[in-house]
Amino acid sequence: MIMYLYKKIAITDRELFFKAYREKFKIEKENYIKEAYMEHLLKLTEKVDLMILREKNLDMEEYKNLVQNLFAVLENRENLVLHTHIKTAFQLDFKKIHLPFPVFCKNLSLLHLFELTGVSVHSLEEARFAEKHGADYIIAGHIFQTQCKKDLKPKGLDFLENICENIKIPVYALGGITEENELDTIKAGALGACRMSDYMKDTIS
User: Fold this and answer.
1) Does pTM surpass 0.85?
2) I need a labelling partner for 197 at 20 to 30 A (CA). Which of 8, 47, 49, 105 fits?
3) Residue 96: CB partners within 8 Å, gap ≥ 6?
């Protein structure tokens, strides 16, 4: 079980990084950008409390290769969490996983094998189900307007507050979180905030 402290959480997406890197440095060599991304992830693990390796655009084998490459250079894996790929986690004997709600529901019998299990939820009913069935934390979203889901109306702070008031495990906010509105999520009861774009693009140096 993770500690009940406000956490800064990075959710990775190498496609966002690759696009931002190409635009800034005018570099197209894939291998060079991959190396830069690995360095970026290493630096990121030192800046955040959790880094969820999401990588939605990679298939299972590509995802496994990325994780193995990261493991080879990452000395401390304490704040790393894999995403969705339960089989990969088992193959690599890694015990921290974050799951979309449907994947969580389909794999309830396997959850006891993990030290840490997080779940993405979009309603109070899903949050309650996740808590009841062993989730260690949930990520609720999306709270504010975000480019990732620009066609979907954000659920807002009332939604976040309602979940926080009815769930005992840590609730982390997701969606359009910035330095300016992070305090609002704290006031609503969230114990952490997740960001993708900020950490994948704005921290490129």
Assistant:
1) yes
2) 105
3) 80, 81, 82, 89, 114, 115, 116, 117
